[in-house]
Amino acid sequence: MYVIPYTQSFPILKLPFIPLHNVIQSFSPLEALDFSLTSRKCRNIVKSTNLFKYDIGLSLLPEQTLFRLYRNLDREHLVCRLSVNELRNRNRHMEVKGILKPYFNERKRISLHFAKVWLNYLCDVLQMKLKILQMNPSSSIEQMFAVAEWMNSMQPEIWLCEFHDGIVKSDSITRFFEIANFPIRFLSFEVIQRSDTGPINCGALNVEDISVATRTNADPVNWFNVEQIKTWICVRLMFHACKFEERDLNQLVKGWLNGCNSRLEFFSAILDPLDFNIILEDIEFEERDLTLTRLFHTSLTTLPLSRTFIGGYDITRSDGTVATLQQINRFPGPRPMWEFAMAVWP
């Protein structure tokens, strides 16, 4: 007959502060969460230790993981995932009125009330800050408006804002940026685009890096135009397969020469083969010899980024800043596309 082994209880709340501090230090984030939910006293103990130096990411995608905890904003060092089901099983410990439902409906759209309650609790008890926001690009205009208003009230400093996986709804994303009034450092689009996708207006973005891509090269990005891009204040701007033409790039380069995109260090776009006679029309340039090889180094988010320029076309702004243009590096895929790159030399 199986006998349940006897386990002696551990009087953790009777420990002096320093030993108690050491015990809590050995907790995982999920163990610390469970301990904090035991009572208000336990919650205050966890909060007072201030041991959990993590950044939290919120995902509003239709998936099971609502929160991810990272160490030092390094997405390679994922410390913990908190799924919708794990949090729903702990709802009874939360001091809220009514039933705390995780979803709005059968389509598994995350309830913002559910997300708010748990995010506020985690940030308060574990002394964390929201740094990563993953948005569902298929969300309704009303949902985007509500998220933007929520973020405005929190005033977080978002390290990375992603629109990820879903079919892009241009009107909804435009509405989000009309309302959003909080700092974003890195902005990423990796979405499913349909042939009838309309233009997106993000306003005058002020971010470090912007990355724009669709899930398939069959429908290159066509929802940003050059006139809008010229208003952006960013350092690095990368488009995967897109529909810019030579006249578009001519206007972009002229804009940079005239002071637009003044912080820009690197621009790239995956395009069909280009005619540089059109790109450089009415622009003073110096064509460099193919024997000249130059290495350009920068970074995208936390990842190093480098390009090798062989020859290329140099242009010079009125303040003496030099940039090089070149179409390099064939992009893998069923159709011949190449990377157009513009690097601004330090």
UniProtKB/TrEMBL annotation:
<dbReference type="InterPro" id="IPR012885">
    <property type="entry name" value="F-box_Sdz-33"/>
</dbReference>
<dbReference type="Pfam" id="PF00646">
    <property type="entry name" value="F-box"/>
</dbReference>
<feature type="domain" description="F-box">
    <location>
        <begin position="9"/>
        <end position="55"/>
    </location>
</feature>
<protein>
    <recommendedName>
        <fullName>F-box domain-containing protein</fullName>
    </recommendedName>
</protein>
<dbReference type="Pfam" id="PF07735">
    <property type="entry name" value="FBA_2"/>
</dbReference>
<dbReference type="InterPro" id="IPR001810">
    <property type="entry name" value="F-box_dom"/>
</dbReference>
